[in-house]
Fold these 2 entries.
Entry 1:
Amino acid sequence: MGLSTHVLDTMHGVPAAGMRVTLYTTAGDTATCVKQFDLNQDGRNPGGLLYDNDNLKPGTYRLAFAVSAYFKSCGVVLPEPNFLGTVSIDFGIAHADQHYHVPLLVSPWSYSTYRGS
């Protein structure tokens, strides 16, 4: 239970190892940084859950994924300005006793997400 994320690089067919991710809590137009981390070799937070079940609270959150920086670090030549720079996903936690998994499937040109398990 808790909050987790996972990123897959769909351009190369691999986990997005090394991508920088920032987690925020949000309230209206205000976003407060909770933590930043670089994804591990499996495309996940090296520290495990972003919030465990005891610390996850109902509310609104944002995950910001540094997409263009990641692809540039992989040697992908991107136009300036980049089509996707930072992908931000704003989401809500209604039931803190449930698991919320926020996966990102991303290329330099597209992304998708969903509530995973």
Entry 2:
Amino acid sequence: MKKLRLSLIVLFLIAPYVMAQPGDAIVGKYHLPNYLDIEIFESDGKYLGKIIGLDGFNDGQKKDIYNPDKSNQEELLLGKIIIDDLEFEASKNQWVNGRMYGPEKGLIFNLKITAVSPDEIKVVASKYLFWKTLSWEKI
């Protein structure tokens, strides 16, 4: 009887980790090379990212001053959703079809996440024919 109770307790403790969807592997907080801190989360089957920290970003930029829509240039960057539409593609084990807004230039890039490790994720950002692979550090 004690073994059964112990087994049930262990099962309930590890079940959330075992049952987590593979797509949720990117959920968490990251430090980007441009000194933004973001949080990636799931919403309605897609993955989004919002700014949660600006320490050292673009010489102290706090507002969306480079937004091409002048009516949005006074918006604060903290809390702004800058990643949207990322979808997990199980056959490739990648997150694809995403878009990312770069507030340091006011540009939108295509976004794909190609690899996840406990310490970082590998991200490919592209615009037209140009692309760049970056590592985002998990915090």
